[in-house]
Write a structure and sequence with these properties.
Layout lengths: L53 E5 L3 H15 L7 E5 L10 H6 L7 E4 L6 E4 L1 H12 L7 H31 L5 H22 L12 H15 L5 H4 L5 H11 L2 H8 L19 H4 L2 H6 L6
Parallel strand pairs: 1-2
Antiparallel strand pairs: 1-3, 3-4
Length: 302
């Protein structure tokens, strides 16, 4: 911790960390309006419920996309029990602090899932937990062979532990912080590039994260690291992503899967309107309720 003698060089100049931190002003940056140091609901609001067994409450961030990719892949395999309603949770508006959402996820983070095929319904939160639950429930994308299963879980847990350095670290300071700071950007760029190198080295000898098997490990990793290779944070030149050819090959290979393309659209609110399906209630929505179509009808869903 910097002491008072170092204060002129701190950011902002003169800043000295207090002995006890208190929340007395917004932290700044893009998400300052929803950041707070306590948990729990801020307002009463029930969640909508559709007709399918699985009710997903999410947004098309990397963590949300993991789950919609898996659900679309399960449906593509013929698992009709994986039909789902995907409801948009606008995190910038604080929807995740509504009482209904907090009942499913006390941590107020997307995605959250309610499996209504069980009695009573099963609540699920944390994207890795949801992937594991659904893969086990439907017996797909999680190998049963001992070593492959262990390797799948290794990489799933790697993603869960590593991605916060990318999103909460590099992405925040490179894109969302109120001003640019060299130290945190360089610190998290170094870690992000180390992680990209970990993946590139592994994929030099493996088609997917678990050898020749496409698993929930790929689905967990692709939205974050495939995103970095494609367009996330506008940082591709900054991170020299061309230096990771094996990761680039894998990124393109997964993007070629129709289920991945559909999964990336669900609950998406950024990008061009034709890439957004803000709510998904059946497969026909991809052809009739993309955001460009909804807007052309005066914001009416059919």
């Amino acid at each position: 911790m910097a002491d008072t003698e170092d204060a002129p060089a701190n950011q902002p100049p003169g800043y000295v960390p207090p002995r006890v931190w208190t929340w007395d002003s917004p932290s700044g940056g893009q998400f300052a309006n929803i950041n707070r140091p306590v948990s729990g609901a801020t307002h009463e609001k029930a969640l909508p419920v559709g007709t399918h067994p699985l009710q997903l409450y999410s947004m098309g961030t990397p963590n949300g996309v993991k789950v919609t990719i898996l659900l679309e892949d399960l449906l593509a395999l013929g698992h009709s029990g994986a039909e789902y309603d995907a409801w948009l949770i606008e995190i910038g508006e604080g929807d995740q602090f509504a009482s209904g959402f907090v009942e499913i996820n006390p941590n107020s983070r997307i995605p959250a899932l309610l499996d209504r095929s069980t009695d009573p319904p099963t609540r699920l939160f944390e994207s890795g937990s949801i992937l594991f639950y659904l893969a086990e429930k439907f017996g797909a994308f999680l190998p049963t062979e001992h070593y492959k299963r262990a390797e799948t879980m290794n990489w799933l847990m790697w993603q869960m532990g590593s991605a916060p350095f990318v999103g909460g670290g590099f992405g925040h300071f490179f894109t969302y912080a109120p001003f640019k700071m060299e130290y945190p950007i360089s610190r998290y760029a170094m870690e992000t590039k180390r992680q990209l190198h970990v993946l590139d080295t592994h994929l030099a000898k493996n088609q997917f994260m678990v050898g020749d098997d496409y698993t929930i490990a790929d689905m967990a990793i692709w939205p974050w690291y495939g995103g970095l290779m494609r367009d996330a944070y506008g940082a591709q030149e900054f991170l020299s992503v061309q230096d990771y050819p094996n990761l680039r090959r894998w990124t393109a290979q997964l993007w070629s899967r129709p289920a991945v393309q559909r999964g990336r659209m669900v609950n998406r609110t950024s990008g061009t309107p034709d890439t957004q399906l803000r709510e998904r209630h059946d497969a026909g929505d991809f052809e009739s309720n993309r955001q460009d179509m909804v807007e052309a009808r005066g914001r009416v869903r059919v």
